[in-house]
């Protein structure tokens, strides 16, 4: 009997598969039959119609192909990106126009300068809050979690898409130091999810979960790719930022979609007559023959190291602001009530400070993000030994020139102000990223170093005759890559920089700076995205640190939970009830018996709850009552044969009464289906029953007890027949790898089939954070102390194993000579 | 008793760990004690010595860090790469000098032109053959296999390193169309392995297996990176070529080491006064403001598609040549005898054809690979409407000009000749790669298309006033990336191209062409490396194809082997013997009992063989003989108490005789340790025994039978307590993922703890190749027919499961009411 459920499940699944297959065949059969019929049809447009049907058939069969999906996704995202950019440009132009038109009155100018972003940001925050609060923030941390296999609710819906796109456009249109690249990763994933849902109307393949995750990974690449028109950097950045283990077979998907998307994005610009042909977004024109001198490399290394510290500081500052606002309960309560006040206040502060006739004049506040970047990457030198006459500061570069101040002071002010402004602005609850602001700050820092170098060595460092002056723009490129790499903990910002500038001549300085920045930043702080993951407490596994040897020495046995909740194959419903009441794990282990502890599978909590509610639920109760009524009737009919009419009436009365009683006794039907609620309510009901029902109650209690004592029937219960198993000696390093590879939530620790422990994400996270944060020179890993206790417990294990083997011995054929002989041998 | 071995193993492991830990502490304790002692020492240089010891301690503790290892690796590889390049350049110069010096006599010139490469290639082939045959070929296929977890013997030794470096230098110095990039991946891995071995003298961390694999992955990146001075492209190329799943946490390792290596490699060139500063290897100077017109994109797409076909053809041709030579037994036998004849013949043929005054004049045969690439990437146009006067063909470009022939004809001849030459040359058994020759052919093809376009549109395509002439050099870049991408099935050749040329302006055309080339090539042929893997029959899992839906429909139950070889916990040695004789699997499943089939673990074949040989081996036999002798003695002493001296003599005689007999009976001691050899020899020995020993033989046979009937004692036998388990419904897609993620060799298929099948690499490979090669529109996956039979067999499974549950029922407390009730419920 116990075996039936597996058979039934297996048979059911097979029948289901066969049914599906047949229906598929039938459907295709139907189609071909219509085709045949059409061919016999002698109408005028028969041929036409045959052709149409064939084309349709062909198209539908092709829709399932990946590349169609990727092309559609790329196209869609390029359009979205272009439209968003277009709207942002219009918004910014409008602000400039307002500001420029009111130049007669400074106060009106200020009002216009400040009101515009406040209104936009407030609208963006309010709109997102109302439509879909999930659209707030960057989106990369959430995508990282989703790609790990965690399901975040409401995160990939159409509502979120609308909220994110409109919210982002407004937020960026305000001119705040915010970026579009994180949100675009989210938007691309939303597009992919919606497109996938849409395409599943045509073919069944879109419903496959692992395929969806592959497509989401490609979508992340598209998001970055079409945002910067950087297909290669986009793919690499998205891999670094969202994946732990990357399937190389998905590589082409990302490249394909991102290239197509970047291509369309740039073609739109050409068609719109913005550009003559497809070139880089922030094209630079550094000289190619001698991009930099070898002796400049130390300066580039300094940029890298300083950017590393700066990046860590940025992440820390960002987290500090969030935590400060959360901790200050008074502020928090006030802000919670007036949710739009915080964005408005922050925007007011930032835009006041950047007001060009005010403080903004000292920090090039007039320039938008894009304009500042273009000027910073300029290949001319701004400061030439104090004499600036040969540099005419045309166009936007004029903003950097201040009659009273040096360019250096402007740059330092720009860096310092933008630094905290960006850290503050990214905490506003609107859809926004931090990549672009950080990128600009990095470029400014690089420019600062570059200008200093140019001032220090006006004729360049090279001493062999030819004068190659220093190019501060190259330093800006290096600084931008280094700082953004440090904040996001990625190396691929280097590639993004090359694609953005269209020049790869500074590859070595950029790579050196980015690697140094990463080395410094990674040893000080988590990446910005990991920091947000921690703040938001998303279920994610932290990375193993660099070169921490402990991870090889910690074993699963040091971190596992030994007290595993399990159910046995022959347990009764009472055990089930007790286990469900005490533990909180999502899944429970199924073992052969409490003595052998051989792991057979794992069952989800919900499944067990439904088993329990089936056993004690409404239908069972009804059945029992009906049975009892029938028995009563029988008894009555036996007793009152003479007055059968009267007896019949009494019986029916009793049944009616029972039915009335039942209604109260069972509580509301909805609550019956969760076992705990049911259990408490049913026991509760027993007490509040009216006295007249006492006998009946006792019977019911008795019935319940009897039901609970029955052995559990695992029919119709989904069992995971092969949960993931580890060995007690598996190292933390390997456990981490397996967990992140397979996206596990928990794994059982077994020893020769016997369940001895369980490791869940929680234990693993604790262990890693323990080993990562403690940095002293330790000979013993922090958790190794458990191992000594493990030795003693292993004896217990061994005695328990003895039982298992002894049980075996008794089951096997009696060979009394064996143990003694093997004893002798082992001696 | 049965439980003991687990306890013992566990306890042993723990004691071992404790011992290691203690010894580590003691060692560090020793060190600090010397330090303390030194501090109390009042000598003159005591402080100095303290300082030295401290520094030494610090350095040794740092040696374990990854970054030191990576820096050393990068440095070493840069030096190797530079020295190899230097030697190759000298070799090529020598050839040119010889050829140039003999210009009086064409025949002597020919002799010099031909003899030089023949001697070099023959030496290279002979040297490699003698020192380390593993050094032959590219090395990337083997590294791919090693990174998957397969151990290839003798593949990472110092001998191989020497053979590879010297062989490669000679092979490339000959001027044959061979590349250095594949071998450099291998050389870098060799360096990493040797360095790791060397560094393990300082710290124990280098012995960790998973760390070694991480370092090998980084080494592959270094190999490509320092070969092309392309750190980013190197990392990406090595990932694409060697990994299936890539751990993003290893990313920085690759970047770090490859950047450092590329930096040193280029700095060496600067120090050697070859270059003024660090720039790209094959620097191009295309115009930046208008790199290409949008309307040129179709031409780039055509290059991509044609390169896809070309790449597939190259792989096919290469395989065809190898297979042809293998199949022609007469040739094969002859070549096997004279191993150096084949390389010599091929070299003779190729160098004859490239002889500049001969056929070489029509195909720029004078130029080395590097020179041709430089000329092909030239940013001037060669053919301007037939009038070539404004292009003066200076320097090497002169080789492309022929008085009678058009440039187009020269290019076509170059492409066609080099194509088959490269395919042929890469089959020579010397260390060589195919990337660079393919790259040059691709560049030539791109140049051809570019020149044609330039001839067709002499004033460029752009119609809006400004004339932007077409840049054929840009087409060459695109062609090079596309063809090498098609042959290797990688997208990252695009990045390599940018790093090699130092210009990224053609990013979109390159990406489009590379992706199209990949799409075409991947649907026609495996990559060159996969093709070599198949030819060499290395243990590797093929990739799942693009968008084949079947992979989601095939289940493990369709492909698994149902007849699993297993041993039970209570089996006797005879069963062990039988199982070992029949099967050939490397590991055997250990189940609880044949009835329950609950999987407990897996044991390696070698372990079982040693168990068996322990049971029937020499020490046991000696012991038995001694015992028997003692018993005999006792018997004799009981029988012959009166003549005890005589009896003692007889006994000792008998023992001596036995000992003499034993020597023959046991065969050579070496053969005893493999069980099969032992078994056959022992049974054989029983028959050839002399007649006088018959009684003794019978006793021995009896003893052997008794030994075989004993129950197996699993003490001291290493059991894998948690082998990987799958469920019967796992899809092929997921199985493939898990196998390649975890580098599995086989996995057991279980259902609620019960073993029902096994899947090994072989089955998986068959299934994938079945589903990948068959391309028809199938509603049923090719293997689904098994599923119907699976349904019937599942009933058998179910009945077997019944037994398991029944057994349980009988073991649990007797509750006779339960089965009937549950029967009622389920009805």
From TrEMBL, chains A, B:
Annotated keywords: CBS domain, Chloride, Chloride channel, Ion channel, Ion transport, Membrane, Repeat, Transmembrane, Transmembrane helix, Transport
Q: Does the keyword Ion transport apply?
A: yes
Give compartment(s).
Membrane
- Please state what the protein is called: Chloride channel protein 2-like
Q: Which Pfam families match?
A: Voltage_CLC
Q: Provide GO CC annotations from the record.
A: chloride channel complex; plasma membrane
**Which species is listed as the source?**
Stegastes partitus
What residue stretches are annotated with the 4Fe-4S ferredoxin-type domain? 36-65
Membrane topology field? Multi-pass membrane protein
Here the segments flagged for biased composition (Basic and acidic residues) are: 799-827
Q: Spell out the InterPro entries in the cross-references.
A: 4Fe4S_Fe-S-bd, CBS_dom_sf, Cl-channel_core, Cl_channel_volt-gated, ClC
**Which domain of life, per UniProt?**
Eukaryota
Q: Which Gene3D superfamilies match?
A: CBS-domain, Clc chloride channel
Q: Where are the transmembrane segments?
A: 67-92, 113-135, 155-172, 184-203, 215-239, 251-271, 297-319, 340-359, 407-428, 435-457
In residue numbers, the region (Disordered) covers: 785-827
Molecular function as annotated in GO = voltage-gated chloride channel activity
Claim: Flavoprotein is one of the keywords in the record: no
